[in-house]
Amino acid sequence: MSTRTFREKPFPCYLCNCSYSSKSSLSSHENKKHKENRIVPHYQYFSYISEGIVKHFRAAFLQDVDSKLSFHRTTEGIKKFQWKFPEDLFYFLFLNELGFLYKPSIRKYYCVFKGESGYKQIGIIFRCKVWGKK
């Protein structure tokens, strides 16, 4: 009778039926097999977001972005922002955007906007067409 060594795989992929022995293996799998994932497996547990909360958040976000933007010729080009959002609010605001991504292994969301069209889309989302102008 042969004895097999059973290796535990405590890191499941929530998007398919695979499991991995390390978090880095799971992350590598997600990057290869689910590179542009938009599925948030636990979205049904998000709470309702009222329009009042969204309105307040939009104003706070735009004010913060305005304070971080620099308008000097040496700082033109790509601007990268990280902002802490309540998870359900981020999902509500950005789910339908082309640049929306979710990485389940690290529970991180991303939403990338590029160029003039990205600038305009942020203005639509935040209901302020001239955001970021000084």
TrEMBL record:
TM helices/strands, residue ranges: none
A GO molecular-function descriptor: zinc ion binding
Domain called C2H2-type: residue spans: 11-39
InterPro entries on file: Znf_C2H2_type
Keywords on record: Metal-binding, Zinc, Zinc-finger
Protein name as annotated: C2H2-type domain-containing protein
Protein source organism: Diversispora epigaea
